[in-house]
Amino acid sequence: MYGRGIYALRDVSLVVEKGEFVFLTGPSGAGKSTLLRLLLRQELATEGSVKVAGRDLAKLTPSQAQSYRRAVGFVFQDFKLIPSKTVLDNVGIVPRVLGATSVQQQRRTFQVLKWLGLQHRMNAYPLELSGGEQQRVAIARALVNEPALILADEPTGNLDPDLSLEIMNLFRDINSRGTTVLVATHNRELMRHVGRRSITLDHGHLVETA
Amino acid sequence: MTAHWFTYCFQEALASLGRQRVSVLLSVLTIGAALLVLGGFLLVAVNLDRAVSTWSAAAEFSVYLDDDVSPEQRVALNTLLSSHPAVASREYVSKADAVVRFKRDFPDLAAGLADMPNNPLPASIEVRLNPAKADGVTLEAFARQLMETAGVADVRFDRRWLERLGQIAAGVRWAGWILGAVLLIASVLTVATVVRLALHARRDEVDIMQLMGAPIGLLRGPLVVEGILQGGAGALAALGALYAAYALVSGRVLALLGPAFDAASFGFLPARLSALVVLVGMAVGCAGGYLAARHVR
What residues of B are in contact with residue A96 (Cβ under 8 Å)? Predict the structure, then answer.
């Protein structure tokens, strides 16, 4: 709930099973991004609880919250890449600085970049990349820690239809490897193309599950 | 914490310093000015201490004798002096020797002395002290004992004004610390402001790192290191400026003081104090950096 009695989400109760691919849809302001922010623990629910893998996110200490975030992949509509860092650093800087400099970690980063067709762009800076490439870097960053859960907030919002389809196919591939994927979008054509469960929100209420 | 962590913090701090050179320069100059004041006071205090120490080593009692002192009284006085552990050596200066010394030290006044019908200068015993055994309390007591000895007209004790000089040195040192502390607090706030500007400049980056799960320490670390680097640079600048000022004025100060001051005991801040100035600068920077870093939550 925001101040003065305004609810961003109200009476929303839903369960996403492990390994599921779920679309969150609804008009702008429906509460899709708020739900994802709650799942990333960017915000805390004023009422009710948000549990991921049985852990109540509100009960995490700041240190545990950061540790939790490292275990969740997040993809933003505006990519949120660090412009002063190369593709390689954008993808792997946090684990590397935290000491994960093992050959295994480097191999994993390279594998992810190669899988997403970015291995030849490792040393490029985000502003030297196209929009599609930037979003693929963002997805690589979300994948590099092999998260069990990936959250994507309008990941194709800034991309043309062909690139959007390409990115959505990537998410489908990721999901086929066992990763739970939650994608917020209002692109119904893409949802039809992927053909998975969708949850519709409107004015903060869950209105439909299909 | 790992070596990668420190390397990352250091590299990010250097990059940030490079991005905002002008404000960093102002911050470094502010810290430098504060530490220059503190260092200047310390330099004066250190040299006063050295002077006190040098003069203390050469300190002496001058025991002036009554004109009518008897040979027995002189023997008793000599026995008293020779038995005291603080006395390193002694020399008897007769009334005639006193005149010779007076004419040598004050030639302009010698004519006036010659006009006097009788020699007004007293005979004395100059007692050189052993600095290792000549603590203030012992000497005060010894001076009182001498004053009460028969045949003694007066006792002049160098230590008293040396102690006053020592107190002045301590006062100068404290004044430096107090004034320095006030300026250093201002420096902490300046560093905090500059580092906060740096934080605003890379706010997006910090937010992204936070969403990627970077620990708070990793986000705050570069800001604290940035402050430490600014503080260290300010301290080095202050020491450089202080040394330049010392090199410029030391010759003139020594010429002004003349033979009263031993040039060999005059010098720049010792390495220990110079290191302390640098450490204080880095601590100031660290405090400023931390104040700014607390805004990352």
Answer: 4
